[in-house]
Amino acid sequence: MNTFDFPAAEKYLAKADPVMRGLIREYGRLSIGAEERRQSLFESLARAIANQQLSGRVADVILGRFVKLFPGKKFPAAKDLAEVTDEEIRAAGFSWAKIAALRDLAAKVIDGTVPTTAKIHKLTDEEIIERLTAVRGVGQWTVEMLLIFKLGRPDVLPVDDLGVRQGFTRAYGLAEPVKPRALREYGKRWQPYRTVVTLYLWRVMKAAGQGGAPAI
Questions:
Q1: % the chain with pLDDT above 90
Q2: Which of 17, 80, 160, 161 is catalytic?
């Protein structure tokens, strides 16, 4: 698993960008929880699929019903999906589109398109995005969240995330919302610690009562 040094990141960012220096002083040191890191790739992506276009509370209820289809398991493995029908998964609350995505995810875990936990740590961020977005219903944003919260990659800046863009717009006092391309260009000065910047931009929005890090 890739990990990174938060103190080193904060020191670098404070020197590279005065606004980031101010955010670090205001909010203190941030961190990433370990719960997501303990999940298998199949579980992480299945949960991400379940959460799409739903509130976290509703998704949790659906996932709870889904897991009950597999007695004795904390969460099913990809191969376990062969034991249940689409109708049973539908009864748990998944839409037909999400069922198709779950089936495709399971198939791509089994055929190796989705790498094992051991193999994924040897891949670059770009390689992981390419492999995982081949799964039906899994887009780049979902993979970027996995890179941050599961794999602990240090240099991820999800420029298409609304909260990140809003946090940047607010923190930097912009009159107009920042565009993804402009944020990507500006963010070059934060390399190789753009994940830490992402956490602070979410924190800005949480402090404003307008969101924060996403529930995935």
A1: 78
A2: 161
Closest CA to 172 of 14, 11, 23: 23
Other C-beta atoms closer than 10 Å to the C-beta of 145 total: 22
91 shares its domain with 62 = yes
Average pLDDT over residues 149-159: 93
Full-model pTM:
0.86
Alpha-helix residue ranges (DSSP H) falling in the chain: 6-16, 18-27, 41-51, 56-67, 86-92, 96-110, 117-120, 125-132, 140-149, 162-171, 180-186, 194-207
Q: Report how far apart, in Å, the C-alpha atoms of 171 and of each of 113, 164, 202 are.
A: 39, 10, 10
Measured CA to CA, the distance from residue 9 to residue 197 in angstroms comes to: 9
Q: Are residues 112 and 162 in the same domain?
A: no
Residue 184 lies in a domain: yes
In a domain, 23, yes or no: yes
Structure tokens at 87: 């109708």
Position 32, amino acid: I
Q: What is the mean pLDDT of residues 201-209?
A: 92
| pLDDT value of position 2 | 47
Residue-wise pLDDT tens digits, 80-133: 999 999 999 999 999 999 999 999 999 999 999 999 988 999 999 999 999 999
Q: Is residue 161 annotated as a catalytic residue, yes or no?
A: yes
